[in-house]
Amino acid sequence: MGTSTRQASPFLSTFPGRYYYDPAIYAQEQECIFSRMWVYGGVANSLPKPGDYRVLQIASESVIVVRNKQGALQAFLNVCRHRGARLCSAASGHLNGSIQCHYHAWTYGLDGRLIGAPNVLNRPDFERALYGLHPVALEVWQGMIWLNLSNNPPSLREQLDDPRVHDFGSNGAIERYCIANLNVGKTMVYEVQANWKLIMENTLECYHCGPMHPELCALLPQYKTGLIDGNDGTEFADNVEAFTITGEASRPPLPGLLPEDHRRYAGYFGMPNVFLNLLSDHVAIDWLEPLGPASTRVTSEWLFDPDAMASPDFDPMDAVDILDLVNRQDWEVCELAQQGVTSKAFAQGGNYAPLEHHIRDFVDYILEKLES
Amino acid sequence: MGTSTRQASPFLSTFPGRYYYDPAIYAQEQECIFSRMWVYGGVANSLPKPGDYRVLQIASESVIVVRNKQGALQAFLNVCRHRGARLCSAASGHLNGSIQCHYHAWTYGLDGRLIGAPNVLNRPDFERALYGLHPVALEVWQGMIWLNLSNNPPSLREQLDDPRVHDFGSNGAIERYCIANLNVGKTMVYEVQANWKLIMENTLECYHCGPMHPELCALLPQYKTGLIDGNDGTEFADNVEAFTITGEASRPPLPGLLPEDHRRYAGYFGMPNVFLNLLSDHVAIDWLEPLGPASTRVTSEWLFDPDAMASPDFDPMDAVDILDLVNRQDWEVCELAQQGVTSKAFAQGGNYAPLEHHIRDFVDYILEKLES
Amino acid sequence: MGTSTRQASPFLSTFPGRYYYDPAIYAQEQECIFSRMWVYGGVANSLPKPGDYRVLQIASESVIVVRNKQGALQAFLNVCRHRGARLCSAASGHLNGSIQCHYHAWTYGLDGRLIGAPNVLNRPDFERALYGLHPVALEVWQGMIWLNLSNNPPSLREQLDDPRVHDFGSNGAIERYCIANLNVGKTMVYEVQANWKLIMENTLECYHCGPMHPELCALLPQYKTGLIDGNDGTEFADNVEAFTITGEASRPPLPGLLPEDHRRYAGYFGMPNVFLNLLSDHVAIDWLEPLGPASTRVTSEWLFDPDAMASPDFDPMDAVDILDLVNRQDWEVCELAQQGVTSKAFAQGGNYAPLEHHIRDFVDYILEKLES
Lengths: 372, 372, 372
Known about the structure:
Distance between the termini of chain A: 18 Å
Oligomer: homotrimer
Number of strands of chain A: 18
Shape of chain A: globular
């Protein structure tokens, strides 16, 4: 936890105001954080078959994530090597064994190698190996895809094991949830008119839970007290069986959980852009993609056990509705916070109350990344 | 009146073209004029009761104007001292005795003092007096609210009594209209795609009245001649009783006027952003708020005597319709003028004809403010 | 053809990526190319009568092109000399002998001379000759209007006869089509989300014709082979009578053509912003107007012999439909290409295949203009 910014008052300061709106700082973040760190890129099980693909925007790059013929996931810049045309325009879909450019019919295998180029491929002076798609580093951890735009990135492990990242939520419990075995049962996409760091700060504290989230507090009563520092998780209320809009359980617990996990809400932060809600019968992933200094897309994915999903009675909405409600309450105040950051009253930033002090670690972590 | 720019021709020059579109000059105006001068901010009688509030945007600040429990108007930056969230989102409304932030329930009195902050307010190390809302200077003159974002502004009086401001219209007659006793009977809001100074220049001359305003000239025939230099006011046509769309009077004269005021149109400019139309039976206020280099919101407020408004026959529309018609004619040509300012033909500015020479004082006044 | 950029591989490189999206380079193009070169500005016969006018946007200028009382075309900046107001707001129309400003009724003849200015024109100290509309250089060549914003431009002839321009298509054949005798039978306007140079590059090669334009290749089979270097024109397929959607002829050949022209498609590039499709029974003009770094308006005009148009059976759509189809196919891939130019994979540009090598001349020509 940073110390240089501690004040005589009970407060630590947030980022200075300009960090939440200045396009130059946003560009620096895109370069130093989103173009150099591993970033979350969706659930691996969402692309089950060879040829299944998804297109992601990371910093200023469009990236194709595709399952190749050997069944492994690979990622490439979505740019033809000939004249630069966008290859895949849809957000997701299925490729029949190759990726073909619409413009001049240059064609690439699912592994990125150039396999077709009319009038060019067979020329003796053409070294086709130099014209494959540009690869993007990809690793899968706990069923989650991570991508890195760097040419020679360190391992994902190194980023996840950074002790400062561990301060944002231990990854000890996460393995018991076996996310790699779960499937997505529902996806919702929100466009929030707030800087992505305001959304992270919102997620990192529960000082706001009492005023903002009465329904959440009915399930998780400790959040109402405002006495929880951090978001390490908490017990259900006595009359609550599951983290659903009714508080009733409609699915069996996930296999592999300990009894202590059954009546508990736990969180996990994956820096820089993902937050996991770990529940007894599902996992909900909140995935942040900055769209601009004051705009962020949040994609929420609700994952369930495939056996539960195979049931004719399966209905994800009791799990979806409670978090969707909490999400919308949060986006509203994040947008109100965004509206204040340009004021001269916020030029030096705002104040974290004592219950929010741990967020300063997030601020210091980001500031260090921006200076690197 | 500036002399250095006089030419051998019968013309004086306008601002150079870039003053009407360059974002850097716009930013300088926001800083040197709208953030340092007193600016008009609405009719005091529009907020009659304690708790009544209005939110204004001045330069880059959102400002709450509220009537406090003692019945006085106060103004504050619309920014919570904790994490900076916008406090009041509606354009106007009523507060029940306090201003509460939606995010973490920090609460301020109508006088801006912090009176609630969960888990923080009662800590011994917390000096609550340091965390009240940031005040904005406010004065009321002739029933009109004026606001100043400076920390230690000079008095409003000093700005109003500036002899250069007096050139834009004497404030001698205005006191007879007793605006503090009038109430708003109608409000119209226009968004004009023109720089705010083009709108001021339009208001400052009547050379355009003949070609543009036949209905206005029918009421005020001297405006048709193009021989009036300035906008000091003029007499009604012989067959005209009142400044209405029909020329007929439907309300008694305002109390306090002299007989010479009864058949006369008079104007008053309040630099930098308000113009008053002073008529026998009403006052119409045109209030300019720059939205960008090429966009200005104009709010027109028609004020009447409360006794007239209490009549079951009261209908403001005969007064509204004539000025609304003139307004729309003016906005059309202001927008045409805006379209020309980026041309190389206008790089050095355009020309004020002799009847418009007095506008050069406005130009010089603004240029001096920008250099200060 | 430039040599310095040749590579050991069979490829030459395109512009670096930033030339297709950087606003600074776009501004430089507007200054060095569109504000200094002659640019195409429509068909002269579209303004047949004195008073007929058209308003064009060239670089940052709005320009009035009008036929004067003597029957000649003239062009002026669309800016009043008094206060700068836009004079003509419609895209085209008819003026009854003069151009009058809406604002203060200043009035100009169709030759640009100031002929009215209330209260000013007759003052002894007013030199009206100094206050005419700013002229824009205009020449008509082969029935096409060309405009030049420079104060003292070289002749249009000099630009057309530049030997590097001749590389983009000889103007030998064009005279036989007698465009000055044709009339516009159909106009279509497209807004393409791509840099104007990507559209020029698309027009300059037929390597994409096989994959993208099956209907075109059915009419012009050599285009399917991908073996035509450049766009010098090609013969119809054996069963094709005319360049129409059906391949059947519905109009007689244009008078003046040689027999060798009757079954042939020929192209002509007029740098920087026009491309002509020369056919046996019509001429189709594609006119590019950059709207921004990533946006271009393309206006397609189909011209026919007036005698053919006078026929009660005249229907231009068989000619229109084939080129409209090809146009839409081209705009789609131009937009895909635009989406790739900001990628780091395209920072140094893409590659021209051997069949596209001649386009590098266009790149070098533009780069030279930008450095001048």
